[in-house]
Each structure stands twice: as C-alpha cells, then as structure tokens.
C-alpha cells in the first residue's frame, strides 16, 4: 500500500493551516469537524496570531509542532499557499489536503503546477486543490468542511464535485446507505481518480469503490487501475450528453461522443456505470453488501402476484430474464405454500405467507445449486409483521451459511416495511422500496460478475505486422505536408498489419491497369487516386463492374477526364485497380484518437444502420479477442450477423479477428493516427471470411 497516500488519507497527526477562531470560516470548521468527528491522532491548528482554537493549542507554523504530522489541511488563500508548502515539506508532512480554491479552475494553471512541483520535491502528495477535504469513518477523520462523518458503511466514495460530496454525506442518513470514506478530489493536480482507486483497492475498510467523475485526465491508466481492482467499482459520469471534443472528419468521429467512449472505457475497466444519483446509491448498496451473481439463474420469492409480475418484467430489462425452476425445485417449494400458490418462478407463496414459509423457501432457494441469485419480495399484509419477515430472511441466510450467492429484497408497504428494510440493510441484506430496484440491484451484481470475466481476458499482441512499412508511408505523407492518406497509402498500412484488404494496386497507365485487372480476374473496380479529391464518386472518379480489357481502357480515360474537369489543378497519383468483391453483409470498423483514452475502436453494420440508426459500439484499443467477439454481439443489429431471411450465419470469427487486428494497429500507431475507417467490410458466410473494400487514415496534426 502506498505509504504517502496512506499518510494523506488516513493520517496520524494532522495540521490545519489557516485554522481560525472565527466560527463560520472554513479554517474554523475544519478544526471543529476534526474534534466533533472524534479524531484522536493529534490535531494541530496553525495560525500566526491565535493562541488557542476550540481548546487546542495553536502553532505559528507547522515547523513549531513538536510531534510528527502526516497531513496538513490547507485553508489559507491561494497566494500564501506556496510558503506553507515549503514549511510542510521541511516538517516531513506526507500529504497536503488543499481546500483552497483559485488554481487551475480559474486559469491559474502555472500556480497549480508549481504547487505540485514543490510538494513533490519534498516527496509529498497533493489532494486537490479546490476540494472539500477527506473523511474516513474508520479513522474518525473529518478533515473537511462537510458537516459530519457519513453514516457508517463499507463503500468509499471519490468525488470530483465537492458540493455533491457534501450532499451525498447528508443523503447517507436519509437513505440509510453508509460509506466509510468520502474523498474530494477537486482539480486532481496530483492525486487523481486512478491513484485513489489503486489505494482504496488495498484499503481494508473499503468493500466497494464509488466514483463520481466529471472528466478523467489519463484514461488508459484509469482503465488499468480499475481492471486490477479486486473490489466492485461503480461510477457515475457527468457530462455524457455533450459531444466529445473530436472534430468529425469521419463517420467514426461523428459518432464518438463522450457517452460512447466513457461507457466503453468503464466496461473495459470492469466498472459498473450508474445512470443517475439514485442508481449510484442503489448499486453501491448492492455491491458493498453482496457477492456477484455468478450464473444466470435468478429466483424470485413473493407473497404478491402483482409485484412478482412487475419484477419478472424488470428482470428481462435488467438482463437476467427468469426461467422456470426445475421440477425438483418446484416440488420443494410446494411444501411451503397453499395449493393455489405457484411454485414456478416467481415462486408465489400467496398473501397467506408468514414467517415460516419465507424462512423455509429462502433457506431452500439459497442452498440449491440451481439458484444463482435470489430476490425476495414482500407486500405488507395485516396478517404479517414486516420486521418478523425481515428477521426470517436474515435467519434463513445465516442458517445456510452461504456467502457467495447474492440476495436482494423489496418490501412494499408503509413505515413498518421501511423500518424492516432499514434493519435488513444494517444486517447486510440490500432492501429497496420498489421491486424494480431490487431486480436492478441483482442485475448490477450479475453485470459485475460478467465484467470480471471480460476484464481478465488477455489482449493478443502476437499479430505479425510490418510496422516499418507503415511508418515509412506515414513519414512520406508528413514530408509532403499532408495528414490525409490516399486510399492506396491507407490500404498499404492496413495490409502491413495483416488486414484482409481486397486486392488492389495503383496503375499509372492504361497498360498497367489492364495487367493488374487480368491478374485479379474480372469484374474490376477502378477509382481515382488523388490527395485533392476526397469524394471520388462525386467527381466521377469511380467505375464499377468492369468486365473486359476494352472497358478497362475506356474507364481509365473517362475517370481521368472527369477528375480533371472536377478539379483541374488536382494532383493525380494514378488509378486504383481493384478486384470487385462479391456482395456480403456490410459492416464498418473505425477509430478516433480520443483526448482522454487515446485510440478507440468502433464497430457497426454499414449503410443505414450506421448512418441513420447510429447502431455502433466503441471500445478503447487495444482489445482482447473476447472483447472483439462481444463487440459484434453488442449492437442492436447483431442478429443480422447470425443470418436472417434464409441467409446463413456470417463469418463472425473472421470479423472478430479483423476487429482485434485493427484495434492493435491503431493502438500500435496511436501516436500518429487521428482517425481511420474500414468501410465497408464485407462479411461472407461462415468459413468464407471478410473483405475490407475501402480504408481511410487521417494522421494527427
Ligand atoms: N499560516 C497560517 N494561517 C494563516 C496564514 C498562514 N500562512 N495566512 C493566513 N492565515 C490565517 C488567517 O489569518 C486567517 O485566520 P484568522 O481568522 O485568525 O484571521 C485564516 O488563516 C484564514 O485566512 P483568511 O484570509 O481569513 O481566508 P478565508 O478563511 O476567508 O479563506 C479559503 C480561505 C482557503 C477558505 C479561501 O481562500 C478559499 O479558497 N475558499 C474556497 C474553498 C472552497 O470552496 N473549496 C472547494 C470546495 S468544492
């Protein structure tokens, strides 16, 4: 575990620089919070004039403090901070909790850099600046101006928004969902989200990591750090509706919004993405109390048919559709219900269900191998007591001794149900006031299990490539002052990375064109090659279905004439002669180099699917072979690849291999390539492979 970060987040000895005797000032509040929180490892207020604050001796400088200090909370105006940093460094402080605002968030970028440089020169780390502070229940540490320590819990939150952290602090009590640590991360000048994820993964009091993110600085490191984590991570990302900072020079560029790219990154990181604040809380509750749902079989026990049906609907949307329980399982349930109950799934114990029936069926369901996850629903009735039902569930769970199978619950009723649910949560069983939420929570536990498998799948770096050829082409394009590669150049790079490009070559004369065509066989496609003509068809620069030598010669001349008429001063490299690929299912693969995550890879079906329906999926490159296969199944139009209207299934294996090789190419050349497309890629029947018909690469400026 990183010692310096531990000094910062679980300090032994803490100074408050800018401590004030004046109530209402942040420097006063922090001292008061440390005292009220019960922190016992040494509080040292620092102030040039005061003698005593809230009963604590005040020092003029950290250098005057006789005891060791791990962390200093900085609550003085920005212009005085540097001097204090120096003194903290000389004192041997490990970490600075810089509450002060007035740094990069208001354009003072250099001041912030200087703060970090100075801190690092003493081996210190910086949390902030521009933060609320940091809180830890297990250390009784409220080193912040948030009003109190949160309700005790086993999840820890890292928040880029200070105000939201304060709000969540209060919500922990009203929602009854506790946290151990609340860490405000502000400008992330030094300690960033990836650092805290790495540290919390080692923190013994944290069982689940909850993140509120506005923007990441080093996306790839974030993914790697999360992927290493052995604890569940749930993340709420704000600002997914706005378009990413990518100029849309290609199809892929126009589709690569923050929602897609961040969503992909979270999935690869193995992090569950929450849809809103409520969802963040609900998922945190499930993930911090329950194990993942490792198989697909969900069982629901209920005393009400209505909530059972509602939950059945929700299960389908949550990705865990219900199946009927096997006969043997049903027979056992029948022993604990009247004849008019239902032992299928949902198991409807009917409104007559009392403590014993809930106890017996819960115990049996949890113990049975067929059941991978259990949801218990209860509607408040006049013949039952919600608290006793809750206790029956708890006792059943205890008696089975099972800890690797998840359970979630929903009690629908009034105050008595609310109290019972609070009791369940306090005793480690997630409870929600709506059956849909209990199902969603189970869906989250299932998603967690699925993501674990995905994030552990290895990336294949064993592709045979000719990197030097690609680099030579790129160098040549740059030497000519271009960033856009011609089709021939783009295709040559694709070929160098082993991608199945249709056979094609550049002809600079009619005779050459004929020779190439005869070596490929008819029919043939011919296209103009010019860095000045991007939209070849509009310029009359494309001829298809050419079937003889005479047609080749004629097409050669027509294309040249059309191109010159379209743009008289266009530089013309020649004419591309290309085998005409037979019809196949059209797909598209593309990439943009994202400012946060670097090269990304996109997949979709071609034509209207990408243009109108925008049915595409993104990942951050490179990707594992397993991720490539999952990408093919992740689009809405996925069934088309499995064969529709009498067509046989398409060669998904070959397509996934192309995706994986392409992702490798764009990450291997990530420092050069800004955007790229392979469009269309024609996919044939199983065993017949795929062909990339057109390819495009645009270099970084
Ligand atoms: N060492 C120790 N104490 C010092 C000092 C130094 N080098 N320089 C000044 N102080 C003392 C001051 O004398 C004052 O104490 P006093 O009340 O006894 O006079 C105290 O530190 C605070 O300084 P002051 O000038 O009164 O500042 P302030 O309390 O008005 O504001 C901040 C200080 C840090 C709170 C303010 O600059 C700020 O950044 N506010 C925004 C915080 C925020 O919102 N963060 C982000 C949340 S999301």
What does this entry look like structurally?
This protein folds into 5 domains: 1-130, NAD(P)-binding Rossmann-like Domain (Rossmann fold, 3-Layer(aba) Sandwich), CATH 3.40.50; 150-289, Rossmann fold (3-Layer(aba) Sandwich); 295-455, Succinyl-CoA synthetase domains (Rossmann fold, 3-Layer(aba) Sandwich); 457-502 and 581-700, D-amino Acid Aminotransferase, Chain A, domain 1 (2-Layer Sandwich); 504-580, 2-Layer Sandwich (Dna Ligase, domain 1), CATH 3.30.1490. Strands 9-8-11-10-12-13-14 form a 7-stranded mixed sheet, sandwiched between helices. Strands 24, 25, 26, 27, 28 and 29 form a 6-stranded antiparallel sheet that branches. The two termini are 41 Å apart. The chain has 701 residues and is an alpha/beta fold. The longest helix has 21 residues, at 435-455. Helices cover 39% and strands 20% of the residues. The site of coenzyme A has 26 residues, from helix 2. Residues 17-18, 20-22, 25-27, 46-50, 75-77, 80, 84, 99-102, 130-132, 162 line the site of coenzyme A (COA).
Bound small molecules, deduplicated: coenzyme A
Separation of the first and last Cα atoms:
41 Å
* CATH fold type of the largest domain: D-amino Acid Aminotransferase, Chain A, domain 1
Name of the CATH homologous superfamily of the largest domain: ATP-grasp fold, B domain
Strand order of the largest sheet: 9-8-11-10-12-13-14
- Number of separate domains: 5
Query: How large is the share of residues in beta strands?
Result: 15-25%
**Assembly form of the protein:** single chain
* Mean residue pLDDT: 93
Proportion in helices: 25-40%
- The CATH architecture name of the largest domain reads 2-Layer Sandwich
Compute the number of helices. 24
What does the largest sheet look like?
A: 7 strands, mixed
Structural class: alpha/beta
Number of separate strands: 29
Radius of gyration from the alpha-carbon trace, in angstroms: 31 Å
At the first level of CATH, the class of the largest domain is Alpha Beta
Low-confidence stretches: 242-249
